[in-house]
Amino acid sequence: LHPGRLGFFCKLGYGEQDVRKVLQSLGWEAPEDDVLRELIRMGSKPWAPDIPPRLVARGVGGIPGLSPWLHEEGHDSSSHLRPIVIDGSNVAMSHGNREVFSCWGIRLAVDWFQRRGHTYIKVFVPSWRKEPPRQDSPIAGQHVLAELEEQALLVFTPLRKAKGRRVACPDERYMVKAAYERDGVIVSNDHYRDLQNENPEWKWFIEQRLLMYSFVSNRFMLPDDPLGRHGPTLNNFLSKNPVPPEPKWQPCPYGKKCTYGNKCKFYHPERPHQAQLSVADELRAKLQASLHLGHEEEKPRWGP
Predict the structure, then answer these.
(1) How many Å apart are CA 252 and CA 264, to the nearest integer?
(2) What is the largest CA-CA distance in the chain?
(3) Of 88, 144, 278, 289, which residue is the least packed, with the fewest Cβ within 10 Å?
């Protein structure tokens, strides 16, 4: 036999049984390329060695210990739009004027982000909202929750019963964690004060990535400046690669009398195509130009 040849392909990660089968079929002296081609044709895959876990930037993926729904739709990482995490209870109660859990409000919010092109959208709703509505907690359009769940757009947070009483896990923690790991945006009018005080990283994230909204009749509306007048626009807020705004030049209040020259941070319309020079530098440049012109005129036009 040829133990060296067999060991060579086994070191590449292929199974010993598959390598033996291919070598017996092609011959023990077959070229390495032919053996590898046959192994690939057979569907044999090299096993992955024990490699320490690779450090991954937050929001890119591969976070151990997370639920499976956080890892699905891996193609979304290449999208230029941020993932969207919607506080379903907050949106539904807002659309129902704080009296009815209106699932139609969730549908309006999801449709708005889908029309914009977002590929990763997750809505979080407590599991007990699947139960038949009661008089003290009316629900409108409950079938919408089932439709969104079938489309993998809605996640029901866990629920358990202890001694006949319903114990619901707080869905706020799931939402903030999902948005934080995905480096996405939280759609809610809640400020999550408890979670901000609990974790300083979450505090910064909630302050920078909380997107508030409003309903005007059946229209889902978002502010043009989510972080205030001096913050990013809505398009930049929802984009992974924000586009810097074009500089707005403010005319110099001193006009032609400005003596700051190139140190002036304002715009001078009287000199659009030349460097901003000080008045003294401009006078020197004009004087040199006039002297050079006079020197050229003094030269004889014809030779001796």
Answers:
(1) 8
(2) 121
(3) 289
